[in-house]
Amino acid sequence: MGSLFRSEEMALCQLFLQSEAAYACVSELGELGLVQFRDLNPDVNAFQRKFVNEVRRCDEMERKLRYLEKEIKKDGIPMLDTGESPEAPQPREMIDLEATFEKLENELREVNQNAEALKRNFLELTELKHILRKTQVFFDEMADNQNEDEQAQLLGEEGVRASQPGQNLKLGFVAGVILRERLPAFERMLWRACRGNVFLRQAMIETPLEDPTNGDQVHKSVFIIFFQGDQLKTRVKKICEGFRATLYPCPEAPADRREMAMGVMTRIEDLNTVLGQTQDHRHRVLVAAAKNLKNWFVKVRKIKAIYHTLNLFNLDVTQKCLIAECWVPLLDIETIQLALRRGTERSGSSVPPILNRMQTFKNPPTYNRTNKFTKAFQALIDAYGVASYREMNPAPYTIITFPFLFAVMFGDLGHGAIMALFGLWMIRKEKGLAAQKTDNEIWNIFFGGRYIIFLMGVFSMYTGLIYNDIFSKSLNIFGSHWHLSYNKSTVMENKFLQLSPKGDYEGAPYPFGMDPIWQVAGANKIIFHNAYKMKISIIFGVIHMIFGVVMSWHNHTYFRNRISLLYEFIPQLVFLLLLFFYMVLLMFIKWIKFAATNNSELFPFNLLFGWSLMTSLSHLEPYSEACAPSILITFIDMVLFNTPKPPPENCETYMFMGQHFIQVLFVLVAVGCIPVMLLAKPLLIMQARKQANVQPIAGATSDAEAGGVSNGGSHGGGGGHEEEEELSEIFIHQSIHTIEYVLGSVSHTASYLRLWALSLAHAQLAEVLWTMVLSIGLKQEGPVGGIVLTCVFAFWAILTVGILVLMEGLSAFLHTLRLHWVEFQSKFYKGQGYAFQPFSFDAIIENGAAAAEE
């Protein structure tokens, strides 16, 4: 059986490589991505391994590349990405790469330091320019004769009286700039610390200034503080220092201020020229680095991955040979040997590598080959648990059952078409969309599941045609097989009028899907859809569970587990068939045998039409719809051995001859299967141990006790070595397994009713949106009606896509996932293995890029 249905057969191999050829051989294996190496030095510290210095050098090169990448992104320079993956460089090329990165980093740091110093100088000159402009107004105001009150406030009334007439008041001052948000607190502190003996004037700088440290734009204000005396001057300067205000020298004479302003403007122009040249040089360096940055990252990560892998190897006593152990797929051994030969030839070594297959009891990893179509479905299975080695893989069957069960819940031709078109668009544009490599997690989930979305949409369109439902309306393709026998006034006046299947139904089955008349049958539309969808949910559920039990037969036969085959699979299948599949058969018997017209040629689903419409007939026939029994009541009476209630007059108690005997027999046999499942397997194991009176063989123990799913035997190059399990644990495990299956058969069957519930809820929500939203726009007439209809349609479309397609689609997706994980896979799938994780450059580079973006 192919690897699509089971995981690949794996082999544990021992690899002998010459030291000179080890690097090139591992490089070839990394390009191939088919070998999973085992760590042969688990007790050796990572800093004590042979190639730790090379790994450190790669870490340092990665740090330099990340620094370059950060600077390139800061300037918004696009990085060239050809999509190609260069080969891993030779070890001697590491020196050239280190020298290149060292030169680029030093050059860029030097340019950044010069640019920062120039920007800091430019900021100081700009602030000084604003101070010289703004303080001129302050000095003019202070020189004005109208400021006597302010001078009196500074000196106090006694100081003014003490001053001689005509003597000019000499005030000291400091000027500077401060962040605008700190200014109110700064002003309060000055007032309190100086007891109001200072005079502060401030003005905002309209244009924001660039902070040279981080490049942020900051808003600042110019201030000047007038005071008298050295004591206040010292206090003011300390407060300015505490608030990180920058003080600048400001001449007192107007001529000196003008001369200084002219000098500042000249220096600013010179600085602008130098800054422009510095930025141009920085830009040229970054543009040159951006062309090769992606390739450099790939090369460094490949070198680092190779040395990390070489650290997993052992050295022989001669220190000339490296020994490795690895898991490889059996089908790819020749391909791996060819890659090893290429690596040996590229390194120039004359000693060929040796790949030796080993016998082992270790449990092999699980490897399922996938392509871009099956990858998403396999991911759904692995999210529950990685399959045990060589266990039946549910993914191939999930490709069909998953979108179909989803469509049963999401059945709508219109909504399914929207979903299918979205999936088809992603499939058609997948190359371009994949090349974008966005870090939007939601979009990546949608894009990764594009084939699932497309299939779910297509299947939903099919079930929408079966339900005859498109945006809560019907398609009248074949007309209706019902006709009215009442006049128009009777129909319009009687809201609870129902058609009679005997006189109003043609009797011929509808060609495809449901009759469109059910869409306008307000009185019993939901009743009919309930009966129809509830029964098909049970039918699909029972068939799905039986299929899961049959899958366990494939596991037991493959692993030659005769005990589980006879005493688990057969009782489980018999229990499920005699109880729940029998209930499904009763549904079909009821559909075929009972009808309003009592015509056995009617299609079963159309027979249900008549039964749901008619509640009483004047003339009761043995197989009329009034005599049809309830399947649920019949099943309950069967399990509890209850005597059925007397049927109506002229009706039969049972649906077919010998029904009572068959039901009693089925229940007794099904109940008898429970002790077989519970006791047979543990008792046989106990008897085998007593007869052997020795420790069981490892393969036999795992075969009998663990279901054989972990023992590859002769099928996979080694099985799982398991210790002997205590008999008490075997009995407990088997009891739990039996109780879980018996009770789970009931609960799992009821769980499939979610197919009916979500389908009904989806249809009702669509109808509510049509009735309460879109119908408002359809009632308007004229030009105004067209405008209203356009707005209402846009609102309806948003609600349809947002609620019915996205939210309802996600709900149906999760319920379908649960049906597969719990109801279906629990019948045969253990999911106790571990995934095959080969040494692959593609996976390492992809994971490294994702980690760098985070």
Structural overview:
By secondary structure, the chain is α+β, with helices and mostly antiparallel strands. It has four domains: 178 residues, no CATH class; 161 residues, Alpha-Beta Plaits, CATH 3.30.70; 193 residues, no CATH class; 229 residues, no CATH class. The chain is 61% helix and 7% strand. It contains 26 helices and eleven strands. The strands form three sheets. Strands 1, 2, 9, 10 and 11 form a five-stranded antiparallel beta sheet that branches. The chain has a four-stranded antiparallel beta sheet with strand order 4-7-3-8, sandwiched between helices. It has a two-stranded antiparallel ribbon with strand order 5-6. Helix 11 packs across helix 25. The chain starts with 9 loop residues before the first strand and ends with a helix. About 7% of the residues have low confidence.
Key features of this structure:
single chain; 854 residues; alpha+beta; Alpha-Beta Plaits; 4 domains; five-stranded antiparallel beta sheet; 26 helices
- Major sheet summary line: 5 strands, antiparallel
Rounded mean pLDDT is 85
How many discrete domains? 4
Unreliable runs: 154-167, 599-620, 696-722
- Assign a percent range to the helix content: 55-70%
Total helical elements: 26
Based on Cα principal axes, name the global outline.
flat
What is the end-to-end distance? 42 Å
Proportion in β-strands: 5-15%
In total, how many beta strands?
11
Q: Kindly provide the radius of gyration, computed on alpha-carbon positions and rounded to a whole number of angstroms.
A: 42 Å
Q: What structural category arises from helix and sheet content?
A: alpha+beta
